[in-house]
Design a protein that fits this description.
With 241 residues, this protein is α+β, with helices and mostly antiparallel strands. It is built from five helices and 18 strands. It binds magnesium ion.
Amino acid sequence: MQDVVAAPPQPRVPVQGTGVPAGSSFPVHRIYCVGRNFADHAREMGAAAPASRAERGVPTFFLKPSDSIVIDGAVRYPRGTRDLHHEVELVVALGRDAPRGSFSADEAMSLVYGYAVGLDLTRRDLQAAAKAKSLPWDTGKSFEHAAPISAIVPAGEIGDVYARTLTLRVNGTVRQQGPLSDLIWNIADILQELSELYDLRAGDLVFMGTPAGVGPLQPGDAFEATLDDAIVLRGSILPAR
Ligand code: MG
């Protein structure tokens, strides 16, 4: 077969770690995102937070296009919005295809290649308008530069990820901070739930949901998202074009 248009570039995320050869990268297949995975953020968005694991129901999922990742921190303020919001999130990078059928929590964790920190950027005004009409969120969540992401660090270098804390600073001020022990659905839960709906594959990224404190970003803002001192994502918001 012969392509009739130029093939789009394969989105890739750099991989960094002590045992990782320089120049290593992670080719991105799909980007899955989890909604309302911290109780304090669910409440700030006006949703009920589950009182216990038994009451948590099923997670909310949405996707972003793989070419919405930004790996150099240079985020162009998107068109079509006057209310771009930050949501700092742990990103799980899958190194293996998920098996078909149910699998254990240990098997789920064995799918994980590594972790990154990302921003689930959101055109909040468009998302709110869609929610008010019970319409899909796509225009609020999926757009150019919607998913800035740090380098991926192999899981073995992060240790117990649930002992770590996500932080987002904007212009030096802490805007969001949340311990990953507060996740309503942990990584194994999310991979099991996603696999009921999709064929999870090596190259998939999963944005795990954001803690409270989401808010607006303006052109000129500088952001720094961290997982303790283990992973850092630095960038800034460029003027709209
Ligand atoms: Mg989010």
